[in-house]
# Entry
Amino acid sequence: MSVPLPGQGIVKGLVETARNFVGSYVEKDRLVTVQYPEERVPQAEASRNFPFLVYDGDDWQKGLRCVACQICEKECPPQCIYIVKDTARKPDHTGKLQFQPRLFEIDTSVCMSCQVCVEVCPFDAIKMDVEYELSTSDRFNSLLLRKAQLAKPNQYFHKIHPAEAAEVDARLGADKAKAEAKAAAATRPA
Amino acid sequence: MNSEPAKLENAPLAKPYELRPKALADGGQPGELLEISMGPQHPSTHGVFRMDVVLDGERVVKLKPVFGYLHRNHEKIGENTTYLGSMPYTDRLDYFCSLTSNWAYALAVEKLAGLQAPERAEYIRVITAELTRLQNHISLVGFLLQDMGASGTPLMYAFREREKILDLFESLTGARMMCNYMRFGGCRCDLPPGWLDQARQVVGEFPRFLDEFEALLSGNEILLSRTQGVGALPPELAVNAGITGPMLRASGVNYDIRKVDKYGIYDRFDFRVPLGDHGDVYDRYMMRVLEMRASLKILEAALRDIPDGPIMDPKSKLRGFRPRAGEVYGRIESPKGELGFYLISDGSPKPCRYRVRPPSFINLTILEDMCLGHYVADAVIILGSVDIVMGEVDR
Ligand code: SF4
Ligand code: SF4
# Structure
């Protein structure tokens, strides 16, 4: 092996730097900076930030899917969900009477966006939002999201997670069809 | 390489200066010593790490690492939450490599509960773990060069490539860093459509970048003179101190848990474990570069062979998960070394004892032996070459 000239390694490195500098004008994968507020990276289907509550139909109070079973409250690792059950019941998508939450609060200053609540919810009522421009000037009050702020329509869910929402809709639709068939079978003999 | 810390006789001693009190009297060093506290806000200490360094002139005569500024009670929280509830917290151990932390924890719980991840899930685990290794090593090299004073360029190139891998993580798991992806008995969700092609493309382009990166760095005279012979760690000391991972292999000890335990499906891949010769900072740098090349080999094979099929063990369940009583230790080769989870279960939904063996914490205990006799500026790069993440050191 020949002895390298002193400084050869540095020159070689500088050639690399020059290649990257010049390359950034012509090659797309060397110029990767996204000029953020003007340009945005499209969000992936799986993106997640903080949870929100899905409701069907137009009235968020009536359409809320959550049945206040409090499973998510129990499973949330940092314990940032707070639920109070309402005594009044309301029908769910299959027409069965279910409980509903009177209070449903998520402290987003504590939430760590882990998606555990979404995974454990048996009613597809809580899903992950993708909204990320959430800064506020108040550390306490505005970071505690109330039920009214959390409720978002199913259409919004379709917009942010199309594949997952379609799957959930198909599943809920099948439940509903089954319940209707059962109800029809029960009423026919009468 | 000499296995003794460099002798101090040659170092010129500072002239005694009467008015200043002696900084530290023990150790019996003649002359005036200066005790400084580097960190916890020092930019080169990789987070909130602090070292109390005693200097004789510019040479380190004593170094005391001080940990705990980022202590979050991880283990106690793990004992007070369900098995599933600890999974997102493991992301926050080594926040550069959340997927390998997930895997180590999932592996321990699977051993405890007798679950077996299906074939496809095992492949996904290998792919994500090796991608994690790539992005960890590449950013480590970037940070190491930053510590050496190469401000910006290598780090920015490294981050440019890392971002491509993080994009893959985001489209798979929903988050760039806090992935929370693996579950007991499989993975949380299947690969989204097109993910494999994107991954193949990233893996296919990576060698070109590595070649460029090596052309930029490996032969650079400044890098050579700053790193060769600095911070040598003799193999016997490394083994005695329980050092693992690239640091151990840089000292020439052939120990890679992927080969030793063959956990998951690592017995199906043919890859070489690079070994160093001197155990100095340069070897540790080279070790990372060579390991990335080995990881690329594994990735190519895994991306080629990945089968279709389920991704969850049907016996596994999310709610009401209660493994039987017992005691396990699950470990994997994380990018930083041996990452192990030790769990004792009493049959309840919460572990009775939850203990983490963090590689970067144990690798850090040897810092003083490597730094003695070197310049304080070298202490910074020796620390950089250890590859620490304070989230894992302090837990
Ligand atoms: S969000 Fe789901 S898990 Fe939580 S209380 Fe409502 S229905 Fe139950
Ligand atoms: S995402 Fe995680 S931390 Fe946030 S509310 Fe859901 S379970 Fe709790």
Q: What stands out?
A: The interface with chain B takes residues 4, 6-10, 12-13, 15-17, 19-20, 29-30, 32, 44-48, 71, 75, 77, 112-116, 119-120, 128 of chain A (CB under 8 Å).
